[in-house]
Structures are given as C-alpha cells and as structure tokens.
Design goal:
The chain contains 4 helices and 12 strands, in the order H-E-E-E-E-H-H-E-E-E-E-E-E-E-E-H. By secondary structure, it is mainly β. The longest helix is centred in the C-terminal third of the chain and has 17 residues, at about 305-324. It is globular. It comes from Kordia aestuariivivens.
Length: about 325
C-alpha cells in the first residue's frame, strides 16, 4: 500500500505540474557527490561525468576486509526539451576480498558492476523562472545576495530508470532480477547567492528481494573565487541486506564553463563494515548544439501573461503615444 501511494504522488507531480528548466551557463554536474540535482543538462547538450575511486572495508563481526578500486561514469543527454534528460550511469569495481576467520586467511579477487542504470529525469517544477524576471536592486549588493525565505522553495525533478544486473555478478545474490526499476525524487534550492541544497529520496531495485530505500542530503558552497566550490553530504541507506549512514565531503574546480575537476572523501559510521573511500573525477559537456530558447512562463504566471507578448503590446502602445 505504501508503495502504491508513493507512485501515486510521483505520478501527480509528473503529470500536473508545469515547469521549465533552465540551461546554465556553467556546467551543472552531479559529481563528486552521490546525489542528483533537479536540473537537466539542457536540450541537445551531451555531458560526460566520470572518475575513479578507492575504498577500504573492514567488517568487525565477520572478520573480513575488502580493498577495492573502481571506475564510475554517467552519460547525460538533453532530449526534446529543456526539462528532459536521459542518462546511462554505472559503477564498476575490482577488489580483493580477504577472510581472516580462517588460518591461513583466504583471499578472493572479484569484479563487477555495483550499479548499472539507464533512465530519464524530468524537471517538473522550477521556481527560478519567475525569479529571473525580477529586476536586481541596483543600490544594494546585500539585497541581491542575502538570504530570502522564498529561495528555499526548491526546483523538483523526477528520475525513473532501470537497473541492469549481468549474470555472475559477485555483488548481488543469484536471485537478483536482471532488470528492476529505480525512482528518485530530487529537489534543489539556491539561496544566499552562493549556496545550493539538494535532497534525494530513492526507491531502488523495487522488484528485487533486496529492494532499497535511501535519502541523500547535499550542501554545496561556491567561494569568492567562483571557480572553486565545496560540498558536504549525508546519505542514509536501508534494505534487508544492508543499512548504513555515509558522510562525504569534497570540492570541485572549474577549468572552464564546460570542464570541471573534482575530488572527495567519505566514511561510514558503522563497523559492519567500516568504510573509508576517496574519489577523483572530471565532468565535461558538449553544448555546441544547444540553442537558447525563449521559455514561456504563462502557465506559472497567475495572470496568464506571456512576457514576450506583453513586451510587444507595450511597444505598440508606446508607438501609438508617439503618433499622438
């Protein structure tokens, strides 16, 4: 019953909310954290995000340890309209699993996909469309960059995708279905000029025996030098096979409007297992095919006025006054 209610809420948001995402002048990457933002990359924009990670796991009760190295990637493309993107994402790990419960200790080398998904994200609500129509206060820098309660109203995006599990994957039980659904509700708020807060609620592997519910909270700050930013993140995970609370922190550096470098570290709070990990990566977008579009906001404007139409009408009135 709870699952049905959850999907009903997502369907309502997806079908009944009118919104228009905005293409950003600077690359909008989901790296280096685990959360996804509400914004899409923009129509006809191709974006690649990828990197490598290392991790050490020690399980106190089972007396085992894992030393891992892996690669992760995401390929995102803005399809048909500004609000919609499709994506292909994955994370592939190589590790050495050691059991110290025996004498001598036993080691096993493993490799496989930790995750492999294809899906689409749609931005169902963007509160910043109206904000972009507001005129800045030319007399006060503080007024334009200070905290405003209305800035906490988030943009909302919905992701729907599918997990693909290949045969003989050592990280999943043999009963794991080869295809299972994944949905994420993503919110994103910009406030006080240089802060971004992102939250995700994810229901993963829905048709699996190891279905997983998780949340992610991420806070990012851009420094006075706008090329640098830093983030802190918390992720909670709950499933029948694994539950944890993870914390991450890291930074990103812009080499240009379309090119970002990043790095991060993280840890768990449990000792079943204890997890320590670090990552580095890049993000790059190809936006040569993107064309800025005049985005109507009449469906979000209570007066139902198209700003371009209103501007044309005002110019016609001015012409009429000049003739008089």
């Amino acid at each position: 019953m709870k699952t049905n209610s959850f999907f009903a809420v997502l369907s309502f948001l997806f079908l009944s909310t009118s919104a228009f995402a905005q293409y950003t002048e600077v690359i909008n990457s989901n790296r280096p954290g685990a959360s996804i933002g509400a914004f899409s990359v923009g129509k006809n924009v191709i974006q690649f995000e990828g990197g490598m990670f290392v991790e050490q796991q020690d399980h106190k009760k089972l007396n085992t340890e894992v030393q891992a190295f892996g690669l992760d990637f995401a390929l995102r493309y803005g399809l048909f309209k500004e609000q919609l993107e499709i994506s292909w994402e994955g994370s592939y790990q190589f590790d050495t699993f050691t059991s110290n419960a025996t004498n001598p200790a036993q080691e096993f080398n493993r490799n496989g996909f930790l995750s492999h998904t294809i899906g689409a994200k749609y931005m169902v609500y963007d509160p910043y469309i109206k904000s972009s129509q507001e005129k800045p206060n030319l007399l006060s820098w503080k007024a334009n960059n200070s905290f405003r309660w209305k800035d906490l109203i988030p943009a909302i995006g919905v992701y729907v995708g599918a997990n693909f599990i290949f045969s003989d994957n050592p990280y999943f039980p043999a009963t794991e279905p080869s295809v299972s659904p994944k949905v994420t509700l993503a919110t994103q708020s910009h406030f006080a000029g240089s802060w971004v807060f992102v939250s995700n609620i994810t229901y993963n592997r829905i048709t699996s025996d190891s279905k997983e519910l998780s949340y992610t909270l991420s806070l990012t700050h851009a420094f006075d030098n706008p090329k640098w930013s830093a983030f802190v993140e918390h992720q909670g995970i709950d499933s029948d096979q694994y539950a944890d609370a993870l914390f991450r922190a890291g930074s990103a550096y812009l080499l240009g409007d379309d090119f970002q470098l990043d790095g991060g570290i993280g840890a768990s709070v449990k000792n079943t297992p204890t997890r320590l990990f670090a990552s580095i990566g890049i993000s790059y977008r190809f936006d040569d095919w993107h064309v800025d579009e005049l985005i109507p906001i009449d469906e979000q404007d209570p007066k139902g006025e198209d700003p371009k139409k209103k501007k044309d009408e005002d110019e016609d009135e001015d012409d009429g006054d000049d003739n008089n």
